[in-house]
Amino acid sequence: MAGLRHRFELFWVLFVASIKMFVRNRLALFFSLFLPLVIMLIFGVLNFEGSTSVELGIVDEAQTDASRALVGTIEGIETFDVTSGERDSEMAALEEGEREMVLVVPSGWGTGPEFAELTAYAAAGAQQDAQIGSLILNSVVLRFFAGATDLPATPVNVETVNARELGYIDFLVPGILGLTIMQLGLFGVAFSFVQLKRTGALRRLFATPTPPGYFLAGQIASRLILGLAQIGILLGIGMAFGLNLVGSLAVLLGVALLGAVIFLGMGFAVAGWAKNEDQAAPVTNIISLPMMFLSGTFFPREAMPEFLRGVTEYMPLTYLNHALRSIANEGAGPADISGDLLGMGIWAVIAFVAAVRLFSWE
Amino acid sequence: MTEQAFRPRVGTGAPVLVARDLRKRYGSLQAVDGVSFEVPEGEVFGILGPNGAGKTTTLEMIEGMRPIDSGSATVDGVDVARDPRGVKARIGIQLQASAFFDELTLVELLEMFGHLYGVACDPARLLADVELTEKARAKVPTLSGGQKQRFSIASALVNDPRVLFLDEPTTGLDPQARRHLWGLIRQIRDRGHTVVLTTHYMEEAEELCDRVAIMDGGRIVALDSPQRLIDDLVARGFRKARVERLANLEDVFIDLTGHELREGE
Question: What are phi and psi of A136, to 5 degrees?
C-alpha cells in the first residue's frame, strides 16, 4: 500500500497544495517575492542614466607624433570618457571596475612604415560598452590609416579581462538574490507555519494516517521551487537593466540552494519555537533586519566602519551575498569561494540542528 | 414544540470502541484518571462534563492524537498505542478548533484529504451530504460558523469512518444552526457510522445521544442513557425547585424565528 508511487503521489499532492497556498496568499507573496522585485526595479531605474559613455583608459607607450594624434582623435569622441596613464595603473583601474576599456599603444607604434596592431582590454562585465567601444576604436583607427594598404578589417585587437563590475545593478542583483532567499526561507516559512499551528490546521492533518513529514517535504520543496522561479525572474529583469552574469548559472544556483537550506532551517526553527505570529514577528525581524542592511545587500560592506565590518563578516547573508556576487561579477568557481562555502556550510548545520531541536507541531 | 426524541436504541452491534483505564498526566495535573467505556456499533455516545474534566484529552488519546500514559484503547479491534495510523484510517475527526488551509477551496481541501486518507473520494457528494454544494468553490474563511462545522464534518467523512468523533460540534452556533447540525448527525448515524461527541449542552445530549458518560476531575462519574440517568436522580428523591414549564425560552425563540437556517452572518 505504501509503495514508492503512492509515496510520491502523497508528496506531490501536498507540494501542489503548498504552491497553491503560497501563490494565493497575497501577504506572503508580497513580502517574499514582490518586495525584492520592487526594490530592484527602483534601483534599476535610478541606475539607468549612468551607462551612456564608455570609460576608456589610454596607455600611450609609443609617445610618437602618430600616437599623440591618435589619442587626440579618440579624446574628441563624445562616447569616450578618456583617462590617460601608465599601463599598470590603467589595468588595475580596469580590474577595479573604474574603466570599462583600456587601449594600449605599444612602444614603437607608428615609427616604422608598416602598420602595427593595437590592443584594447575590455572588462568582462561591461560587454555592451566594450562592444560599442571596440566598434568606434576600430573605425577611428581605420580612418586614421585611410589610404594605407593591407589594413586588417579590425586593426584593434580586443581582449576580455575579468574585472570587478562597474554598474550598481551588477552589485545590486546578487544582493537582491541573497535577500530574496533569506526572505523566502525566514518569512515564507515562519509566518505561514506558525499560522497553521495556531489555528489548528496542522492538527487536522495529524488526524489523518499520513505521516506529517510528507507535508513538511511538500512545504520545503514548494519554497525551493518558488525560490528558483524568483531567481530566474530577478536575473531576467537584472539583465534587462544591464546586468552581466559572468559566472556559471549552475554554480550560482547551487550556492543559492545552500543559502536556502540555511534560511529554511532558521524559518522552521522560529516556526517551531513560536506559538503565534506575535512571537514569530519580532524574532524573524531581529534575525533578518541586521543582515538586510549590514551584509552587503544594497551597498558595499567596505563603506561600513571597521568594527561593524568585523562583526557582520560572519553573518550567513554576508557569506551568501559575497559568494553570489563573486560568481555573478567575477565568474568565480566553487574553489574561489571556498571560504564563503565553509561559512555557509557551518551556518547550514547550525540552522538544521536548531530547526530539529526547536521544531514542534503544536 | 419540544422534540422529545429519546430512542431506547442501545447498541445494536459489538463494541467498535473500547477504552480501558485510560490515564494522562500533565505535570501535577491528572487530566484523565482511569477512564473505561465501550461504544457499540451504531450508537451516538456523548461525553459530558465541565471544562477541564478531561473530555478532549480522553478523545485525543483514543484518536491517536496524544500519547497514552497507561491503559489502552482499541477502535474496530485496532490498538491505538500499537497502530495509531491504523486507528486514524478508521475514524473521522472533527476538532474543537477546526481550521483548514485558508487559500484552498472546499473541493480542493476534500480532494487533498482523500489523498491523505489514501481513499478515492467524491467531493461533490460529500458537500451535498452536508448541504454545501453551492459553496464548492468557496474558501473556508468565507463560510459562516455553521457552514464551517458542516464542512469540518464533511472532511471527517472522507474515509467513510467506522467511528466519527465530534468535539463540541455546536459550540458557538445559533439555535437554528444547532438544530440543523443535530439533523445532520442523526443522518450520519442512520448511515451506519458510530458517533462519539462531547458537548456542554445537556439539551443536545438528550436530543442526540443514546448513552452519555459524565466526566468530572478526569473520571467518569456516571454512564447510562439520558433517560435512565434522569430516572435515577428522581428515584433518589430529587425534585426541581420549580415544576418544569411546558416550554422554555429557546422554544419561544424557535417558535418566533423558525427552523430556517441563517447563514448570512
Answer: -65, -45
Residue A150 has pLDDT above 90, yes or no: no
Contact B86, B74 (CB under 8 A): no
Contact A209 B155 (CB under 8 A): no
End-to-end, the C-alpha distance of chain B in Å comes to 26
Helices (H), chain B: 55-63, 84-90, 106-117, 123-129, 145-156, 175-190, 202-208, 226-235, 249-257
Which residue bears the cell 457510522?
Answer: B193
Query: Whole-angstrom Cα distance, residue A144 to residue A158?
Result: 18
The candidate with the shortest Cα–Cα distance to A256, out of A327, A187, A351, is A327
Interchain contact B128–A (C-beta under 8 A): no
A51-70 burial string, b = 16+ CB within 10 Å, else e? Answer: bebbbbbbbbebeeeebeeb
How far apart are the CA of B116 and the nearest CA of chain A, in angstroms?
A: 5
Give yes or no for a contact between B36 and B22, defined as CB atoms under 8 angstroms apart. yes
H-helix or E-strand spanning residue B78: strand B78-79
Q: How many whole angstroms separate alpha carbon B243 and alpha carbon B246?
A: 9
CB distance B242 to B122 below 8 Å: no
- Cβ atoms of A237 and B95 closer than 8 Å: no
The pLDDT of residue A52 is above 80: no
Whole-angstrom distance, CA of residue A145 vs CA of residue A156: 12
Of the ranges A62-76, B27-41, B159-173, B198-212, which one carries the lowest mean pLDDT score?
A62-76
Please say whether the beta carbons of A288 and A263 come within 8 A. Answer: no
Separation of alpha carbons B166 and B92, rounded Å: 8
Alpha-carbon gap, residue B41 to B46, rounded angstroms: 14
Least Cα separation, residue B112 to chain A (angstroms):
7
pLDDT digits (tens, 9 = 90+) for B205-254: 999 999 999 999 999 999 999 999 999 998 988 887 777 678 888 888 88
pTM of the model: 0.75
Contacts A13 to B, Cβ<8 Å? 112, 115-116
**Partners of residue B112 in chain A, C-beta under 8 Å:** 13-14, 17
B104 interaction partners in chain A (CB closer than 8 Å)? 17, 20-21, 24
Q: Which residues on B lie below 8 Å from A25 (Cβ)?
A: 102-103
The vertex-A299 CA angle with A293 and A302, nearest 5°, equals 100
d(CA B62, CA B67): 9
Q: How many CB atoms lie within 10 A of CB A362?
A: 11
Distance CA B237, CA A232 (A): 80
Triad A39, A43, A44: Cα angle to 5°: 110
Asked if A209's CB is within 8 angstroms of B88's CB, the reply is yes
Residues of A in contact with B63 (CB under 8 A): 207
- Length, in residues, of chain A: 362
In chain B, which residue's Cα lies nearest the Cα of A21?
B103
Nearest CA to CA, how far is A207 from chain B (Å)?
A: 6
Contact at CB, A207 and B93, closer than 8 angstroms? yes
Residue type, A159: E
Q: Which amino acid appears at position A250 of this protein?
A: A
